Write a sequence for this structure.
């Protein structure tokens, strides 16, 4: 609102003048029914409200105009600036002084609030910046070091490397590059979320295809895990953003692979659900429900509520990470008007449940076409 008022230098003054004129005219209509002291309170309230949104000069103008309006229109004799008795003169002077003091104090309070907000924002930004640098110093440096080291070894002319050794080094370069790309993508995605740049492009998506493609990309990360798919072959197409859904599934499965022991099971379940009004025999809400769970360690109960916080890493976590993956998942889910829930499984492990209210297109209808 303040930005709106300050687009034009003259706009705050115009708002002050029009506000006083408008309130004065309203009070003038009922002047014979109310005491002029009540009008004074109303005008004082107006000055107080203007002081919340406008700068000091325009508020002072409103205070002066209010005092003049009170004297000219509501203190007898009407339509003159003359005052017959000392009591009314004292009341008018006090009104003007109180209006001025109120305007000045409110303005100072606003400035203090602004200064405190700026200070808190800077402190919060520095904290996030330092946390990010601390995380990236390891998460980015490690794959870069692996790439540089492998390339350096391959370029050494005085070292004879077997075909198998060379292939291993190429695999290390590929693995480190994928990890580096994942971290950079997360940073770019968080930047998009922070700037409000996310605008989902909804189209018909085969969620089953997205999941299989993501799991193929994560073959290296999940090679020591067992992945179980519980997906109906006749699952309909859902109207979602393909790119965002791909990143959501990727981050969740990657998170499961990094925070579970070798041999753990990652289960992926996709369901199509409909809330039905049985009395009227009509469908109400069509839902795509995706559940990704594991039988690993789960989340500490006292920290589970912070799982989706930016840069938050659990104290007992054995692996690194920037703490961005799950916060990006939450942002991308909510950008598509979906919800995400997290809870620990009774037998151990974590359960992520995603729900989207979506339009759907049965596969059968495509075959018929």
């Amino acid at each position: 609102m303040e930005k709106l008022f300050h687009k034009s230098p003259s706009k705050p003054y115009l708002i002050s003048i029009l506000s006083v004129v408008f309130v004065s005219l309203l009070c003038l209509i009922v002047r014979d029914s109310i005491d002029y002291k009540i009008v004074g309170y109303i005008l004082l309230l107006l000055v107080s409200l203007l002081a919340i949104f406008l700068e000091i000069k325009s508020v002072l103008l409103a205070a002066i105009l209010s005092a003049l309006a009170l004297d000219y229109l509501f203190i007898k004799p009407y339509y003159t600036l003359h005052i017959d008795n000392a009591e009314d003169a004292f009341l008018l002077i006090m009104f003007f002084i109180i209006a001025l003091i109120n305007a000045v104090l409110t303005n100072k309070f606003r400035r203090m609030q602004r200064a405190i907000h700026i200070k808190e924002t800077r402190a919060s930004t520095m904290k996030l910046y330092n946390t990010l640098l601390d995380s990236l110093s390891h998460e980015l440096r490690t794959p870069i070091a692996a790439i540089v080291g492998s390339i350096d070894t391959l370029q050494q002319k005085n070292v004879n490397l077997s075909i198998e050794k060379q292939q291993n080094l190429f695999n290390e370069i590929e693995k480190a590059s994928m990890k580096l790309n994942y971290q950079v993508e997360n940073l770019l995605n968080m930047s998009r979320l922070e700037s409000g740049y996310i605008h989902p492009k909804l189209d018909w998506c085969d969620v089953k295809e997205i999941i299989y493609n993501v799991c193929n990309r994560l073959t290296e990360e999940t090679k020591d895990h067992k992945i179980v798919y519980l997906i109906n072959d006749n699952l309909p197409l859902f109207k979602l953003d393909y790119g965002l859904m791909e990143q959501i599934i990727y981050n969740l499965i990657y998170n499961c692979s990094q925070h579970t022991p070798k041999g753990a099971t990652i289960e992926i379940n996709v369901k199509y659900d409909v809330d039905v009004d049985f009395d009227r025999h009509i469908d109400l809400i069509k839902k795509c429900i995706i559940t990704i769970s594991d039988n690993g360690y789960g989340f500490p109960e006292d920290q589970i509520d912070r799982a989706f916080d930016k840069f938050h890493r659990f104290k007992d976590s054995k692996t690194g990470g920037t703490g961005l993956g799950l916060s990006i998942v939450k942002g991308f889910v909510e950008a598509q008007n979906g919800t995400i829930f997290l809870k620990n499984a009774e037998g151990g492990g974590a359960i992520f449940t995603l729900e989207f209210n979506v339009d759907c297109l049965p596969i059968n209808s495509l075959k018929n076409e």
Observations:
- Residues 72 and 79 are 5 Å apart (CA to CA).
- Residues 1-6 have pLDDT under 50 and may be disordered.
- The first helix runs from residue 2 to 5.
